[in-house]
Amino acid sequence: MAKLCRPWLSASACLVLVTACQLAASDALPEVKPEARIAILRAEIARHDALYFRQAAPEISDSEYDRLKEELAALERAHPELAMVPPASPGFDDRSGRFPTARHSEPMLSLEKVYDEDALRSFYARVSREIDRDGITFIVEPKIDGIAISVTYERGRLVRAVTRGDGNEGDNITENVLTIEGLPRELAARGGGDAPELIEIRGEVYLTFDAFARINREREAAGEPPFANPRNAAAGTARLDDPDAVAGRGLQIAFYGLGACEPASARPASQQATLARIAAWGLPVVDRAVVVCDAEVLWQTVCALGEERAGLAYPTDGVVVKLDDIAWRAKCGDSPQGPRWAVAYKYAPRRAATRVRAITIQVGRTGVLTPVAEFDPVDLAGSTVARASLHNRDALARLDVRVGDAVFVEKAGEIIPEIVAVDRGRRSPESAAFVFPETCPACATAVVSGEGGALVRCPSEACPAQVRRRLEHFASMAAVNIAGLGPATIGALVERGWVDDPADFYRLERAQVLGLGADVVVSSDALLSAIERSKSAELWRVIHGLGIPRVGETTARDLATVYPDLAAFGDLSAADFDAAGRAAVLDLGRATEQALLFWFAEARHRALVRDLAGQGVGANATYRAQASSSALAGKVVVLTGRLEHLERDEAINRIRAAGGRVVASVSRRTDYVVAGENPGEKLARARELGVPVIEEAAFLRLLEETP
Ligand code: IVH
Prior knowledge:
The chain is α+β, with helices and mostly antiparallel strands.
């Protein structure tokens, strides 16, 4: 941890928050009495808590939610007599009702939040005044935007992982947390001395921006609605009911503090020592912690981290400033918002005001109708944005955004533009609520509703919009990657009636491509050779390109390990599937297996695969040839513990390249368990079931046997 040494950054780098919520609230409710406003806010916050935690379907952005909480806290401070009136302000509670609960030995408190320089300096001044001595140091840490977790180790062994819940009791999600790579089951001895009898280590479970993007790609491929931001994705993932599915999502964890510690003498004396001890135990800790010892430097640090956060691989929504010395913390005491020795400074969301010009409906590859707001272009966090998804029919109805409305746009999780509020005070009296179409805008087929009514679909596979999206997907970089076949070219080919399904690409003649004109196709030769080249795309790319619901990239890669080529995959039928025991080998899960069988039940889907195979597509057996001659071909492998010579991702890729398959949990179908450092539960399970366990050296030898 280095002392800060950074160039001065101007205060203007840190924006001061002006909120649409406050505008909307004061416009809509000009002379509401404080007690009525408090009641409204309490009810609203409780409703948003339920939407967020129990239904995983938030309606408002995180900053909007914080604003409601802030407004309530401010009103309660100004009217202490009303703060006591039951029902008390809703506390935060993330329990989902779907997991057993467990009590924290020491409560998990929240933190007071501040939003501007003055409030942060007041915090610094207050704590300095209360401690009243020289040499006070604070630690500034990034505030990771995930979900809070408390992991308990008893005599050095991990016994449970529990969400914050209501602060006293949370969801016991141990099984899911155990899938997190790099989380040791046992505290490393290098932490010094004996492990404490009991220690609660507090941290954040989160997803990187890359993992978030990958999950959403897979969800889209599977026809499922994408997550709005990495935090929602992490919250949803941590509460999946299948640990194997959690393992595939790539959750991460970083620790920043302690709860209960027995014996108390084992508790480090400062925040710096706490982070060092947690790291020495082999646990991941928050990085970029900075020690500061004056208010000016604190503000510079906060601004500098604010500049840096856009480049971080993981989402942050602020910084946490903590008094370093644990003994002095007691002097500051607690408030209803949390301990008074720390504060969370939240960065202003990147927000802009604009006007909606149109609401259009997009029809996706799987037929889902997505409403999109088109607005006057605005600069937001370094890019110009002119449109934002309104997600689905229900989300649009809840927001009640209308053509002509003045709206506020933010970047959700700093990446995806989103309309967070409508300025109803400036709405034209002539405006009318948007009427969601009952027929598909591309083909006029009557739409159908699924998933509780929110998702509306066009059921016609022949719908021209779906046909185009499917072709775009097949040609995309994520699938067979035909350079030069973008939406405009595909649109022109479909319009002329030359292409209807992906197999038609391979029947295109030179004269036809030339006939499209130079404004659509830059180089006919380049396009034709890219189409030809795509015939030798790896088999998984072709399978992925077919766009089978629930078959995303990962499943496609798995399928490609058991079929020699596309023709063999095309022969798949219900009887085959079971007889060959492929479902069992692949461990696809019931829903995916059903989706595959359902897709193959359609004669035209089978014909398409045969047609493609007949054109020589997916015949390239590189993946498979390599696989069948390797020692890991067709083997089911479980990785546990930390490997010394390979990163986990690299190990997974190499097993896959060798034709093997990596699964999260040990079962009788597992061929090998590869045990690295701190192997944990999976090792015990392997021994119990008699599954062969190999160490890293033997595993590397097996990989080397791969040509
Ligand atoms: S310290 C007494 N440090 O932010 C509470 N929290 O209320 C001590 N968070 O949901 C929390 N990064 O999970 C702390 N470096 C960090 C953090 C952090 C993220 C979360 C925490 C909680 C919220 C603070």
